[in-house]
Specification:
four-stranded antiparallel sheet, about 160 residues, mainly beta, about 10% helix
Length: about 160
């Protein structure tokens, strides 16, 4: 009976230590699912988030989940970050989605790969308040002026903010 009691105490202590040692660095993490796994050129994906801490730097990530129907080795996107004072910062970004052999980068054992892509590194938000991030795809075929109408193979687009240790 005494051995069972000691085991319970040991298990409780082990679980407590594990729970305390887990340091959740995520301050914001949200995904938007794209219907039928395609991203229309006119579709802006919007994330609204609140910032309270204007001192500590944060890492901001764009998270893309693609499947095997994605035809390209890269991804061009345009972001619009709207601040609480209504100013806007627009960035055009390019990310590698596959290696030279055509194998998709990212994590995942199935046909779906998740890419955690740096958006802004060590960002200090200048204002507390509500921010809005709009993301849209800007893919074009080589030599063409017009954007690809429906970018096939993108299943979800996410945005996350992580505290630095």
């Amino acid at each position: 009976m005494e051995a069972i009691q000691k085991n319970k105490v040991l298990i409780f202590l082990l679980v407590s230590i594990l729970m305390c040692s887990c340091n959740d660095v995520s301050e914001f993490n949200q995904y938007k699912t794209l219907e039928n796994s395609f991203w229309n050129v006119k579709e802006k994906i919007t994330f609204n988030f609140e910032v309270k801490d204007t001192i500590s730097p944060k890492n901001l990530f764009l998270n893309i989940r693609n499947n095997n129907d994605y035809e390209f080795s890269n991804l061009y996107i345009i972001t619009e970050l709207k601040f609480p004072n209504n100013s806007v910062v627009i960035d055009t970004l390019q990310y590698e989605m596959a290696d030279a052999s055509g194998k998709f980068l990212g994590n995942g054992f199935s046909a779906i790969k998740e890419n955690k892509l740096f958006y802004k590194e060590r960002k200090v938000f200048p204002f507390s308040g509500n921010y809005t991030l709009n993301i849209r795809q800007a893919m074009r075929k080589n030599g063409e002026i017009n954007a690809i109408e429906n970018l096939i193979g993108i299943q979800e687009v996410g945005f996350s903010i992580e505290k630095l240790n």
